[in-house]
Write a structure and sequence with these properties.
The chain is α+β, with helices and mostly antiparallel strands and 101 residues long. The chain has a single domain (10-99), classed as Alpha-Beta Plaits (2-Layer Sandwich). Helices cover 23% and strands 25% of the residues. It is built from 3 helices and 3 strands, in the order βαβααβ. The protein has a 3-stranded antiparallel β-sheet, covered by helices on one side. It is globular.
Length: 101
């Protein structure tokens, strides 16, 4: 029997439609709000995508973290919250935090 010795990884899943490309422009390819400081892995999926159910979004990103707590710390950090304010009003977005197995 295999014994789990580590906490499961966690994933932040972001689904975004940009409504104001000019205002959103600074968020593409620049600083991501300090996620590298909490040991996150680069985005796992961007394109292609297929909406199996519900409304699709033009941008879909999955970011892997070492743990659920690390992912929460990233999202609620001052650095990320500052970056998030730049997105407000420029996009419609849903972010979900999911613990892996």
């Amino acid at each position: 029997m295999k014994v789990r010795t580590q906490c499961p990884r966690a994933y932040v899943i972001a689904r975004v439609d940009i409504t104001d490309p000019e205002a959103y422009g600074g968020l593409c390819g620049g600083s991501d709000g300090g996620s590298e400081e909490v040991g996150r892995s680069p985005a796992r999926a961007r394109r292609p995508y297929e909406a199996l159910e519900g409304q699709a979004r033009a941008r879909n990103v999955v970011v892997e973290f070492d743990s659920f707590d690390d992912a929460r710390s990233y999202y609620f950090s001052e650095l990320y919250q500052t970056a998030k304010t730049k997105r407000e009003g420029a996009a419609i977005a849903e972010f979900v935090l999911v613990e892996g197995v």
